[in-house]
Amino acid sequence: MQSESARVTTAQEAKYRVQYPNSQRRAVKVIALDPPSAQMIDELAKKEWNGATFFRALSFASDAEPGKTNAGLNAWLNDLAGRALDLVSEVASSDFIVVVSAAGEDARSVSVIADACTAHHKTLVALVVPGEGASDADVSASMSHLRPYARMLVIAHDADYITAMLTALRA
Amino acid sequence: MPLTLRKRAGERRKGRMFMLRKEQNDYLTQTDPGTPMGDLFRCYWMPALLSEELPEADCPPVRLKLLGERLVAFRDSEGKLGLIDEFCAHRGVSLWFGRNEECGLRCPYHGWKFDVTGQCVDVPSEPAESGYAKKVKLKSYPLIEKGGVLWTYMGPPEKQPPEPEYEFCTVPLNQTFMTKRLQESNWLQAMEGGIDSSHVSFLHRGDLSTDPLFKGAAGNKYNMQDLSPVFEVTESDGGLLIGARRNAEDDQYYWRITPWVMPCYTGVPPRGDHPMHGHFWVPIDDHSCWAWSYDYHPTRALTDHEVDSMKAGKGIHVRYVPGTYRPLANKDNDYLMDREAQKAGRTFSGVEGIGMQDASLQESMGPICDRTKENLVGTDNGIIMARHRLMRSAKALAEKGVIPPGVDPEHHKVRQAALLLPRDVQYKDGAKEALKAKKGVRQTSV
Fold this sequence. Notes:
Helices cover 33% and strands 23% of the residues of chain A. By secondary structure, chain A is α/β, with parallel strands linked by helices. In chain A, strands 4-3-2-1-5-6-7 form a seven-stranded mixed beta sheet. Chain B is built from eleven helices and 19 strands. In chain B, strands 12, 13, 14, 15, 16, 17, 18 and 19 form an eight-stranded antiparallel beta sheet that branches. The chains are: A alpha/beta, B alpha+beta. Strand 7 (152-155) of chain A pairs parallel with strand 13 (230-235) of chain B.
């Protein structure tokens, strides 16, 4: 007699898998940490996404110093329309956070975002995009800034990868 | 191009909730002749058979299927290797029934004979002087022997790359051990398991302390203490490097770095002085693949105990149905599921052995995993990037003839590594030398 495993792993049986949406729309917040990556996400934002929203700038209140751990969470994001939005509220209402950093640019602001993620138990994924002319030292410097905070750190050699990753994550 | 690819090519995307669209899944998983991924695979040397399958001149031929093509391999009277179309050009008889004699494989039906290049050298019904035989030739592919493996290249002859230089096949034969097993699933879901480092702490957790080819390594404790590794993925010349980092003492991180070389080679980070191991996943057809499993040590012969363990199915190897390369635990016997062992924690899934723990779950996905329904998370970026590189490379090959990563033998000279690094040191810097295959230099392992 054919075993159950043999019977159920055929292409024929695959047709009987229950067809339904097995997850809900998720809120992915994509944050550019610097001007070059802000340009990238400007382009990304023009595409069609499930629930992803994009922020292209980060400004901090004077009592929060980027790069210092435990910096105050009184920080602000700008959406693509230029509206100031509260970082903590945005993180709190997200499912996870993706930060994008151009290699060699100042990525220290990730620490404040990471604090917000920690406070609200959100995963932070970091992408470093080397860009043209970026040196190994630039990439290393960016990774050093991001490493302590990111659950997943990726060097994406082309901006297309950001699209691929966000699509894969159903963003 | 297969119907499914043609059919899907013009379809509009109907929604954004798909993780990987159906046509993308088809693109990545179909490797028959004429498919984009099939063309990509045909840029590389791939393991085809074990040397032991053609042990001597004039031994019995072996039939095999690779990338959706049915072939027969034989070693002729002079020891030359041949890999040719399985079927006789006369009436379509399988040449597996052929007589391997006097430098050729002779069809038992009407006596037509073919040499290792597929050239017909004898048609008994026609006068030899007629030259009839010279006008008949079966498709053939080169077959070379290296490191106990018979490798083939199935692409255009004018684009045949230099021979493979993976370290396991360049060390002396007493330092290397290779097996293969049939996996009854598409190659991609099998390969993706090899670059999915986060499953080890769950699925294989019972084996780290008991398997003779894993236990005793100092690094094992970090795996067990820290079940939430942090990952870094970066492209390498030949594919990817996937680093998994766990906390260690003295302000250090324990790094396990997995190389993936396109399209289907991976190295598992080593443990202690145990031999290093890894895999190739070579498509048979779209519903099955060969999972090749190597073990080697760069600087010493494998011990009898190690080889005996590998033959007994320990480590990443498996025990077989006698006389075959099909695992003894397979879908026909529900993988010898042991619920008591699962409940007691001796195995996490109830299936014994690392190889079959992986294979059983990957086969349970179905012949071709439906990726439109999966929900990937951030730590799956190794898988996401591998798919991205495969698709990008296949497209560049199809549109511009760009030779894909992993063809250049220099790309093969990469090693897996496991090491402790200060927390402020990048693994790509701190492990730079450890990730290079160097003759006579021991692996970097904890």
